[in-house]
Amino acid sequence: MLTEILTPTFRTLSRHRLYTLINLIGLALGIAVFLIMMLIVRYETTYDSYIPHATNLYQVDELLKPAGHAAYENDSVSFVSFPFLRQDFPEIDHAIRLLSIPQAVRAGEILGRETVTMTDQDFLSVFDLPLLSGDKATALDAPGKVIISASLARKYFGTVDALGRKIRIDNHEDGIISAVMADTPSNSSEVFTIITLFPSKFFTTLPYTLPFKNWGSTWGHIYIRIDNSNAVPRIRKELMAYPARHPGNYSQSGIKNMFGAGGLILIPMKDIHFHNAHIGDGGTSRQLVDILALVGLAALATALVNYINMATARAGLRAKDVAMRKVLGASRFSLVIRFMSEAIFLTFGAGLLALALAEFALQWVNALGGWQISYDWSFILPVAGSIALLSGAAAGLYPSFVLSAFRPVDVLSASRMPGGGRLDRTVRNALVTLQFTFASLLAICTLVMAQQARFVQALDRGMTNHGLIVIDALSDDTLKNRQASIMARLAEVPGATIATRSDLYPHHMSDSDDWKRPGQSTAFSLHWGYATPGYFETLGARLVAGRLFDDEHGQDYAQTNATSDSGKNVVISRLAVKQFGFSSPEAALGQDIQEAQVADKSIKYRVIGVIEDMRLGGIQSAIRPLLFFGTKAPIDYVAGIVRYTGATGQVEMARLQKVWEETVPDVPFSARDVSDILAEDYRSDANHSALFSIGSLVAVSIACLGLYGLSAFTVTRKMQEISIRKVLGARSGDILRLLISQFLRPIVFATIVAWPVSWILMQTWLSKFDQRISLTPAPFIVVTLLTLCVATVAIFSQAWRAARRPPVAGLRQIL
Q1: Measuring CA to CA, how many Å separate 294 from each of 33, 308, 683, 779, 784?
Q2: How far apart are CA 157 and CA 672, in angstroms?
Q3: Which residues make Cβ contacts (< 8 Å) with residue 550, sequence separation at least 6?
Q4: Alpha helices of 481-612 — where are they, by DSSP H?
Q5: Do 83 and 179 reside in the same domain of the chain?
Q6: Same domain assignment for residues 198 and 256
Q7: Which of 163, 248, 263 is nearest to 210 (CA)?
Q8: Cα–Cα distance between 461 and 269 in angstroms, integer?
């Protein structure tokens, strides 16, 4: 029985090689793109799902709505509210603080720099991480205990059996490893490698105590676990008034200036990944994931429509074959089985090819998008199998149940193959329109995304990005009193032209506080930091008005302590000028400003200079107003900044590392080239744009393959009509124009349908960018013209062959 089904199936498919090849390639490409996109969507939508109680976990964020200024949100928060949360809300089962900082780590002779997470004893009750060894009840029950990941255990000890081993963090006293945890999955909002309790200095010593007392010091995260979901609405409501309820060292007016109508809000753990992208703090945009899903669906839909269109179109050519088989005794059931088996066999062949293509492409896609997606067969096989089965069944329905119902006498006595007439053509044109609507939609979106990516890369960041290295290893506590001498030594490295240090540098924003002009009732939040000599020159910041810090003015630089002995003169950015209400940068010079929360209103700072706005955050982050104090004193959470020339970044980095290791052998060197930082920032959108380009290219290719096959079929069916037209005087050019116009008509309509849909999609996507391109008709027109050109090329050979063919060839079919 199986042989009787497979033998004619192979014979039919091999006899019509072009038809088989077009459908096999088109379906395989469409299914492969769909599988890849679904793996990406699955990866992005299952963030943090490894946490057992993820549905009961919430991150506490700050929502600031200062009067007269745009609202914004911080996911890094102050810890002022933390001691009161469980006291005021008994429904909160567990609450913890998280503060993650890169620090020096030593185990024996192995020295490294790792991100250390400091937290509270309730950590494992909130993040119930799987432990490979150790007891959850005692893993963090006392200071000095440390949990490390399995990968770090292997790195520092050569084995995951590391319980009881000693590890030194931040060059202080040794900690004891109390537990080894499984590595955090890559699709996690919080990635944990080393976990320990807060050291005592965070409760006793400035500036470490700032986030525990000061609402403006937003250093870490707060997570709470609420098992009773009915309590969440009430907690949400009351948290909005929480800053005023627990002002810390702020006055009520200071809280009002900072938060306005805002307060604390709860973000469900399952939403954090997408929410972070929404507020411009990492994560992945939900719109992006939706568009990737759309790309996959469009590619699959194009392939399926193409296959079904081709299969049903060619089915009519087999009417006489069906009639002869019925005359020779074939039953309708056997014909149904044969047609269905042919269709499903082809789709399963395409499915197998798609599995191979998807597995091969996934490695490249992972590298392109920065993902770590595994090829999960338990997910892939059912999806691919279902697509193959359903598409095969859909394509086989018409020949199985319509052709098998024809009466042999009607078919054999007819002068032409049976068909659906005008309805048949309408359906085919509708399917072609649907195909090219999907393809045009993807192509337009891809072109707009590419334009936005180029625009973002060309943005003026207010500084000179090339030739700049940031050394974050300088923030090590043991180097605090040696910062200036170390940077002076690094400035002597060949290729280095100038070196400085600051806590405001590319991709690092320092604390924010509320500032105002004396006598003003409203304040606004700005980021402030410390600039040592040469800071603005090193970054290449552009002076707009006034002057920069220098040694000729005694009020410019603090000499001993950057926290308590700041200079009384400040430099601000152009946006800060606007926020303070000055009419121009020149008008701000010599004016006094002050912190809104400081009780002593006699403390004022004088503006001596205005610089152009610097975009220190990510590409999706809004430009923030900046304020700089001058200092020569040690700075907390500082980075060294070196300007170099005459060498590649890699060569200069090696030179700096060599001198660093000679100067500071006990602190691991950690630095990055700013060009690499920015390239990584741009890479995400550029790579996603590349994925869209590939998806749209596949969709257009599938549509054109189908159009080529359909044109071959249609031209064959129209040979009699073409021959009669030529006998009646039509020239080859007339026939060519007629055929091409008939095929292009549904494609033109498809591009028109795609215009408004893609316009809405791209307007929504562009809205997430602080600076973006204006959406113009140009990409829509370009895609329309290119689509028509490609489609014309696809059908030209068939139309040209038919137009040049002698009329007698077609008229012979009538006779």
Answers
A1: 11, 21, 21, 19, 20
A2: 27
A3: 556
A4: 483-490, 535-539, 574-580, 585-588
A5: yes
A6: yes
A7: 248
A8: 33
Rounded (5°) CA angle 433-713-312: 65
CB under 8 Å to 616, separation ≥6 — which residues? 504, 505, 506, 507, 508, 509, 624, 626
**What are residue 771's DSSP bridge partners?**
none
Same domain flag for 110 and 236: yes
Q: Is residue 444 part of a domain?
A: no
563 domain residue, yes or no:
yes
Residues 44 and 71 in one domain: no
Closest C-alpha to 744, from 790, 700, 798, 701? 790
Q: What is the pLDDT of residue 417?
A: 52
Q: Phi and psi (nearest 5°) for 82?
A: -60, -45
Q: What pairing do the DSSP bridges indicate for beta strands 72-74 and 57-64?
A: antiparallel
Listed residues 211, 230, 261: the one ending a domain: 261
488-509 per-residue burial string, b: 16 or more CB within 10 A, e: under 16 = ebbbebebbebbbbbbbbbebb
- Please check whether residues 253 and 367 belong to one and the same domain: no
Q: Report the pLDDT value the prediction gives residue 337, as an integer from 0 to 100.
A: 72
- Residue 263 CB-density burial (10 A; 0-12 exposed, 13-18 middle, 19+ buried): buried
Mark whether 141 and 226 lie in a shared domain: yes
Residue 569, strand partner residues: 606
- What would the two tokens of residue 787 be? 């689509």
Query: Any idea of the CA torsion for 230, 235, 238, 244, to the nearest 10 degrees?
Result: 180
- Structure-derived torsion over alpha carbons of residues 698, 703, 709, 711, reported in degrees to the nearest 10: -150
Lookup: tokens for 497: 């032209």
Across the 815 residues of the chain, what is the mean pLDDT of every consecutive 10-residue run?
A: 57 67 85 91 89 91 78 82 90 93 87 90 92 92 92 92 90 85 90 90 76 81 93 91 84 77 89 75 74 84 79 62 64 69 82 91 82 87 88 72 57 53 64 81 85 79 85 84 90 91 82 78 81 91 91 71 59 91 91 77 85 80 85 86 88 91 88 83 71 78 74 66 69 73 82 89 80 87 86 74 65 52
Q: Is the same domain home to 229 and 376?
A: no
Instruction: Provide the 8-state DSSP code for 217.
Output: -
DSSP 272-287: HHHHHHHTTSSS--HH
> Is 746 part of a structural domain of the chain?
no
CA angle 536, 539, 545 (to 5 degrees): 40
Please state, in angstroms and as integers, the Cα–Cα distance from residue 28 to each residue in 13, 381, 723, following that order.
16, 14, 37
Query: Residue 397 to residues 301, 342, 394, 811: CA-CA distances in angstroms?
Result: 18, 11, 5, 33
Q: What's the CA gap between 94 and 268, in Å, rounded?
A: 15
Which ranges of 398-501 does DSSP label H, i.e. alpha helix? 408-412, 421-457, 483-490
In a domain, residue 692? The reply is no
pLDDT at 289: 84
**C-alpha–C-alpha distance, residues 324 and 320, integer Å:** 6
In 3D space, the residue among 577, 457, 486 whose CA is nearest the CA of residue 526 turns out to be 577
**Do 444 and 776 contact (CB within 8 A), yes or no?**
no
Containing domain of residue 204, as a range? 66-261
For residue 564, the model assigns a pLDDT of: 46
Considering 376, 393, 419, which residue would you say is the last residue of a domain? Answer: 419
| 3-class SS of residue 629 | strand
Number of domains in the chain: 3
Q: What pLDDT is stored for residue 332 in this prediction?
A: 62
Residue 412, strand partner residues = none
Contact 614, 622 (CB under 8 A): no
Residue 300 CA to residue 351 CA, distance in Å, equals 12
Residues 178 and 130 in one domain: yes
